[in-house]
Amino acid sequence: MRGSRRGFVTGAALGGLVGVVNSADAAENTPQVERRVLGRTGASVSILGLGLGSAFYNPFEGDPEAAHQFLNRALDLGINLWDTAFVDKFSEELVTPVLQKRRNEVFLISKSQQTGYDAFMYEVERSHQIFKTKPIDCFMLMNLNPGKGDVDVKSREGAFKAAKEAKKKGYIKHIGVSGHADPQILIDVIKKYDPDVLLTTLPANRPENGRYEDELLPLAVERKMGVIAMKVLRHARNSDLPSGELIRYSLSLPGVSSAVIGMGEPDQLESNAKIAADFTAMNGGERAKLSQLVAQNLPVGLPQPWDLPGYEGNLIA
Fold first, then answer.
1. What are the tens digits of pLDDT across the range 55-83?
2. Does the pLDDT value for residue 215 go beyond 90?
C-alpha cells in the first residue's frame, strides 16, 4: 500500500520552493520545526501539524512498523501537534504504540462528530481507552455543518455538555470545535460555548468571501482561542500553484498557531517540515497578491471535496 497516495504536497510538487530531502541527510541537516503558543491552552505546538486522517493511514495500511517510523521521524523533526479523530478508521490505534513511548512530546487532538451527550461521551471514553495514555490534550466537536443538522447552536448542546463532563473526569484537557462548511455556525458556537481551540479552513483562496479569515478568525483571536488552520492545500490539489507559498499564507494569518496537513509519505514529511523550519511570514500585501494568483488559477463553481457525497471530513489537507 505504500506510495498509493501521492497528493499535491509531495516534494516534487512544491513549485521549486524546496527539493525532496533524503531521509538520511535530513536526520542530520533538517532544523526543528518552529513552534507557537496555542492560544489560551498555553501549549507550545509546531506550526506544522500532522493530519492523521486517510492521507496518513491509507498508505500505511498493513504496515504499522512503517507508520511508526514515520511518526517517530515527525517527532524528531519537532512536529508535535497530531490531529486524529474517532471516525478516521484505525488512525487512533495506529498511532498509539508511538504515543505510549513518547506521549510527553505530543499535543494530541482527537474529535467526534456525535451531537448527543451519550454518543459523544462514548467516543471520548473509547478514544481515551485506545490511546492508553494521560488525558487527550484537546477533544473537538467535529465538522459543524448546517448541511448535516447543525442549524443552530443548540444542535450540539448535548455534545458540549459531554465534553465539559469529560474534562472534569480527566479524559481531556481542552475542548475544541472544527468545521469548514459554514463560518456562521462556528461564530455562533464560539459565542455560545466559548471553546478553547478552533480548527477551520483558512486557505489562500478565502472561501465564503473571506468570512473565515475576516470574521471568524478575529473572533477566535479576541477570545484567546488557539487557532489551527486546515484545508490550506485542498482547494489547490492537482493545480500548479506553489504549495509552499500556500502553507506560508495560512501560517502568516495573525492568530494562527499551526496548519494541519495530511501526510503519509516520507518525502511529504521532509519537504513540509523544511518549509516550517525555514518559515518567514508573509505581509498583508504578499498575502493579497497570492490570493489573486489563486483566484486566477482555480476553476470557479466546482464543488469542493467536502461537498461531495460520502465525504466524512477525514482528508485533512
1. 898 899 889 999 999 999 999 999 999 99
2. yes
* Confidence at residue 71, expressed as pLDDT on a 0 to 100 scale: 97
48 beta partners: 259
pLDDT of 221 over the 90 cut: yes
Average pLDDT value over all residues in the chain: 84
Give the pLDDT band of residue 219 (cuts 50, 70, 90). very high
AA identity, residue 74 = A
- DSSP per residue over the chain, as a string? -TTS---TTSGGGSTTSSPPPPHHHHHHHPPPPPEEE-GGG--EEESEEEE-SHHHHTTTTT-HHHHHHHHHHHHHTT--EEE--TTSTTHHHHHHHHHHHHGGG-EEEEEE---SHHHHHHHHHHHHHHHTSS-EEEEEE----GGGT--SGGGGHHHHHHHHHHHHHTSEEEEEEEESS-HHHHHHHHHHH--SEEEEE--TT-TGGGHIIIIIHHHHHHTT-EEEEE-TTGGGTTS-S-HHHHHHHHHTSTTEEEEEEE--SHHHHHHHHHHHHS-----HHHHHHHHHHHHHHSPSSPPPGGGSTT--S----
- How far, in Å, CA of 261 to CA of 233, rounded? 8
CATH numbers and ranges of domains, the chain: 11-307 (3.20.20.100)
pLDDT in tens, 278-291: 999 999 999 999 99
Contact 74, 47 (CB under 8 A): no
